[in-house]
## 1
Amino acid sequence: MNTRTTLPGFPYPLGVSIDDAGAQFAIFSRHAGSVTLLLFESTNPDSPFEEVFLDPVINRTGDIWHIWIQGIGDGQLYGYMIDGEYNPESGLRFNKHKLILDPHAKAVTGNFKWDLSDARGFDPSSPQLDLSFSTKKSAPGAPKCIAVKIDSNWLDRPLGRSMNESVIYELHVKGFTHHASSETQHGGTFRGLEEKIPYLKELGVNTVELMPIQEFDEEENINVNPLTGEKLKNYWGYSTISFFAPKGKFSSSGTMGEQVHEFREMVGALHRAGIEVILDVVFNHTAEGDQMGPTLCFRGIDNPIYYILEKKKRFYRNYSGCGNTFNCNHPIVRDFILDCLKYWVVEMHVDGFRFDLASILGRDQEGNILSNPPLLERIAEDPILRNTKIIAEAWDAAGAYQVGYFPGRWAEWNGKYRDDVRKFWRGDTGSVGLFATRLTGSSDLYGTKGPLHSINFITCHDGFTLNDLVSYNNKHNTANGERNRDGENYNLSYNFGIEGQPATPYIQTLRERQIRNFFCTLFLSQGIPMMTAGDEFRKTQQGNNNPYCQDNDISWINWSLLEQNRDVYRFVREMIGFRKEHPVLRKSSFFTGMQKEGEFSPDITWHGPGSGGPDWSESSHCIACCINGSSTDNGTRDVDFFMVFNASLYNKTFVLPPAPSGKPWRLKIDTSRRSPDDFLAPDREISPDGNTVRVQRFSSVVLISG
């Protein structure tokens, strides 16, 4: 029974708002018959709790249930019991016996291993399965919400860096520093990442893209590694439980609300170092899964509003491949997503978001792809989010592939860039033309918007590492417990004759050269470069291209590889610095190939071996381009570039065209050379002999003039 002083409260804002005398609670549910707030003393399974009944006459405004309670403060544990009709065949799955998380909770208890075995709304022993009804209480083992008071006078601000200056570094917060070789005091945490800021600055990246840090259950995976007997995990975290809450187990200072403050401290430290923070957010589905999954939050609040259901409303449409699909374009869900994004920007000061399987955000309430999706437009046009970077993974698990089609100011992971660059360097026929298009910003995809809408990448968390891309022809995912059936089969990789390790010195030399080729291409390309943490020193996953479940050495970054592959690291660091120095590599508009007014040469010309023109034929495997250094966005003059990319089996000689600047060409990059001659320092730039440059097979050469 409730013995505290209460007031009716207000329907807005949703979630918990703490003041000097108490706290305001508000939660949405349209179809609930009753709502009861539970206040817990601790996370112990037998913890006493108070029940606060919300009177539908006094404590309800429209579809919002609300109350103010005296004496509630920072750290209070709470949850809801929501009663209503349990009729799965009509889409309703209320169950008053299940503890329901507040969708707007700022933190969730992470100081114990959750037991969600009683969280299902049905009786799993019943032959009726989800049509049955469970009376088991889920509260003892379930996560609880934590009321958190956040300092609103934080002096930190998002950096607001121009998009063309971004160099994105994708990482997993735990995996980045959890390995003993990281030599951090707080490995595997937000603070551990903060400890690695000097490394990030030295490398030269200025944006970190964090794989999911919103609360998830790493124990939800039921599979076992058949090779070791190890229970597998949900390591990546693409199965969100609480969208406003930083993951407690990524906090070194505590998991009872401290995770919120530690996350903010990390963001502030990164900002002081000039590094932006982008969050990978997963609004396409939730951790509740299909009809056989647990009732944790949205299912028990208002199932037919939050999820896209089949015509037989007992079942969920599964455009995410994870059991359910969030009903993103229902007005209530749109508001929820916008509230969440604005919270992370206003209170946590993040600089942007990468939206997982973002095509789902463009589906209507029947699952159809919309021609003008209101949610995508609202995210882009919201005045609070207006300077926030928004990046779409422009596809989903149901066949939608929309690279080049996201509206307005949206940027996209350019999957076609990844594929076409891999094809070219693998030596596929007919790949030269597409490679040239990707190198120059993908005008076929972003012709009306500009190259800065293209997020260029060779690898990401999903797939081979860059080392494995040049070391394996096939995936090796047996350790995932799915008989090697999971993961992408279409890898466009090449092992140079031997699968994996060990390899001969000659093959190792070719592999390292190929890694340089990929990095050279990435950082010379128009668009925004993104790389994956550890690729700069040849991180390996032993050929596993889907280690979503591997919370172990397969996924964690082994920092000893930095010393073993210092030459590759140096090359990547120099390439990043080189890109930053030269504005002609970071244009907001496409090359036109046309002569500009007042100039005597076009902004880009294409060349083939010898003195002939470019060979765009199916059999061609090499291409060169000359870029006029005067074709910068602001009209200032950069150096001229002559870039050669030779993916053929043969060495090639190219006749050098006259530099637009009229000055001699100097050799800057040659990926066939060993360090330090692969990337030459300014005082060691070498002028080529005569009027030609010889380019070794499987290599890139860059000359500059001016």
Note: The first strand starts at residue 6 and ends at 7.
## 2
Amino acid sequence: MKKIFLFASAIMMMASLTANAQTALSEKYAYQVKQEGFTNSRIGDLAQFMTDHMGPRLAASQLKLRAEKMVIERLKEMGLSNPRVEFAYDFAKGGWDNQMNYVAMTAPYYCSFAANPKAWSGSTDGLVKGECIFFDANTMEDVEKLRGNLAGKIAVMPIWESYEMKFTPLASRLTDEQLAEMEKDPRASTESRVDYSGYYGGSSGNREVQQALMNLLKEEKVLAVVSGSGTFNVPASRGVSYKVGDPEPTPEIILPIEDHSRMVRMMARGEKVEMELNIKNVFTDNQRINNVLAEIPGTDPKLKDEIVLLGAHFDSWHGGTGAADNASGCVVMMEAMRIIKELGIKPKRTIRLALWGGEEQGLYGSRGYAKSYLLDNEKKKVLSGYEKFALYLNMDNGSGRFRGIYLEENDEAVPFFETWKKPLESLGFTTLSPRRTGSTDHATFNRMGLPAYQFIQDWLEYGRTYHTVMDTYERLSLPDLRINAVIVAWLALSAAMDEDRIPVKAGYPEKVLK
């Protein structure tokens, strides 16, 4: 009798586990998704649309507003439901667009430069010419020596970045050994924290002296400020501190470190260096960060209000056309939505596309969405969307192929992705990493304990090109983006059709509301 009872208990336990197991969609759906994504891909057209046709998309700029209208029309053509622009966050900087950019050295010889104005910096008074003066100080006495000598001059900042020749490839695929290392759980090691110190610069020297130098720049009528950032004769994109209503800032220009360092070296040897500039920047009072949203509605009476969210940031810096960062992500998410819509599959849950605004300035778009739909931390209030949040998938690491996904130390997510990824393994999507990764929009949701994940991607020239004027259509690997769109479409469909969903992390949302 006891044996019969134990056997029956085991059967009941197995039945219970089976009832809660993740749903694996049939191979028929996998075939359909791959066939549509590979045979009828729109990746090439979308890539040109998001880069060449739209141009730069700096947060709150006139070009960003133009791009929002353009993408809404494209989403309508795709047949997605309720394409719309939604306000996400107040943005005190307002809009800024560059309309003229000419920079050259005229003495001791002429040389035109590839230059990039800093966002939210001011304009020159038409074409201006002036002598360059090295702008640095170690003591307050050094600061005073500069006072009265800057009017009509061009302030050239110190060398903060230097070039060092590297013997590693600019683009590479992740090796099997690297992927295997990513599968190890970092929580078992005392060295689990990623060191990001190499990504950030810092001001050196006495803070009082540095502040006095900055104050002096505001007081004296310098024509412009010139600094160096970006290698291979490609200037980087940066911004200045500004908010609507402030006096227009001094024009600031970024040169590649090769050109900037050349001038500094010549000045250090006592040569007279002169430049001419013509910079025109336009400020607009658009203090809004917007998101673009659209859906494929859910059809299950019980699950249709739950959301599978696909996202990438729509804004870019102003120098290039924001191709790798992050038109690539937008293109993949839009193509994934097109694939699902084109196949006519009716998902149980709603699949929502989100193209975020203001990511580059501080994740404004996703933070605004979270505050409106999920959790208002200021009011310590959990909103209805929090309980209906099924999954968020994010792309923002260039156009390299997906090799797996970072699961943010969420052990409960593993069985879901183990089930969902089986049809994707032939595409090289094999690695489930327990590691955490940051610095993009999935972090907004992950910090709330919600299932939000970023993909592991091959590193294709990303470090060399993002946030520079080189970030254009040429930085995109269309074959990789095509594969990524198929992967996203399959994962989104799997999550939207699964009877179960990845639970919120234990202890949330209470941890956020403290």
Note: Residues 156 and 226 are 5 Å apart (CA to CA).
## 3
Amino acid sequence: MPRGADRETLLRLGQRMLDTMAHRGPDGQGLWVDEKAGLVLAHRRLAIQDPSDAAAQPMATADGDQVLVFNGEVYNHAEWRGQLARDGCGFGHRGADGRPARSPGDTEALLHALRHWGPDRSCRRTRGMFAWAWLERSQGRLTLARDRLGKKPLVVAEGPWGMAFASQLSALLTLPMVGRRLQPQALDHYLRWGHAPVDHTLVAGVSRVGPGEVQVWEAARRTARRRYWQAEVVATMGARQRLAPGPETTARLEAVLAAAVRDRLIADVPLGAFLSGGIDSALVVALMQEQGDGRTLTYSIGFDDPHCDESPQAAAIAKALGTRHTSWTATGSQARDLLSQLPQITDEPLGDASQLPTTLLALQASASVKVALTGDGGDEAFGGYPRYRQAMGLLGAVSRWPAPLRHLGGLAISQVRPARWQSMADRLPVSMRPTLMASKVDKLQRWLQADGPLQRRLALMQRWDPAGLRGGRSEGGAASGPEADALCGVECDAGLHESERMQLQEMCDTLSADLLAKMDRATMWASMEARSPLLDDRVLALAWRLDPRLKAEGPRSKEILRQLLARRLDPALFDRPKRGFSAPLTRWLGGELKEPVDELLHSLCRHTHGRWSTGAITAAWAAQQSGRSHEVDRLWTLVALEGWRRRWGLELP
């Protein structure tokens, strides 16, 4: 916090930050001030374990020397208590009001674990999700840490004035000393991928504590930054210790998944699960039913467009498993109402349009539960996306061609205009006609001309070429700055198949910065918590040891998860092509969302006129409206950016 600030100033700034995060913790708040150190610790509470006042935060040790603020859950804290007791570490602390207290919850266990084991050992011993700040007053040291995959957010602002940290960027933007200047390289990353870098925000001077990272601050200066867990290390070790396909491996995974689900059933509040029509959430719910009371509450959301609506399949799975199921239908008018709140919901731009239905689902479910288990991470851990299968098949074979031959093939394809490719596809019988032919050919052409896994991933997934959007020469998919730091090291990992390298890149970047961020923002906006058993560190360690053929090969993905689910459900209920969790955005963009999206895109064009190639934006919008091209992801990236920019009065470079 600001150097030299008095107690009243510190309290006022802390409360201002807390007010922006009321939805993340509606069950209470606490402020703790050390005027001499110029520090205020503030906490908003969502009471999940031990809802009593004994677990209130900030939480201090009995001698007042160490103070903790903590967001998340430690599922194995009961085991810690026995270990700490055997080591002679007694329990007892003081709450934010200074009165003695004792709590059976995880916060007190974490506080004493940090004092006894230190931050790195405590993080490695933790099964759960967390972002915490631990103050050692006698050492003048503040330590920040984040869980392995970054399920819980933690952002840090620093400058000559000092430092501040929070669970939300918007909380930091309430501080007058935090600037509103955008970081150009981070913005380029956002335009390419639809999300900010995993260890940066879009605002200059505001970074993130990275997934699996510990940071140490002394005298408002960062003195150490280290990783206690790295996905690339786990993946590489797994590739060196492959498990042979067979009943023993399947049984081993089943036991680990059951343990991960069992851990996440710990709660002192009502708990349920989000259930889609897919494999991942169905397997999680099936394991919940086996280990709970057999009366699992499940929730799904559907749409009035049958091409996107998986709610009938979810209902059929719920019926077969015997859960108490509730489903809702999301409408375009609901999406329109939610669009105006998107900058507050996502906190920073997120070009993932499924944020809308995810938030609607969370808002509905929060009326009856405070915790929901999800199937998040199944695609990244077990090779669920079609692009992984493509990398195992034709695209993987093509990537092994000599570079000159690949480049020549890409050049030959580029000589035919995209409209011509689409015209040729339209002449085929309907049963054989590929969808979005022009887009697919364009991706193939870029894949052929790409060198290395990162560039090939860009060929399949890049939304905008930042240089091209600004009217300059295209960068050809090159990455630089923060995204290169975060991703390029993954390319050198030996022993991984092409598809696994792509999985690893997405686990190191997109999973945390997009998918987990989307779920965290949606559920926290509804004042509830999401838990992801498929991303348990034990599950991930085992998943990386699996033969790639058990994950992404041929027409089917996640073969080993299908085997486990088939023991519990009729395969006819889930054995169908992957559709993903997506709203009927194409229809909504031509209907209820057309007017507000049109206004946001025109606002962006006016704001960037003379600096950005606004013709590319208007062309994409026109192509989407005419049905000539599917531009939803690209357009939503800009819509989310402009809504956020206007909310905070930011200037785009």
Note: Residues 474-492 have pLDDT under 50 and may be disordered.
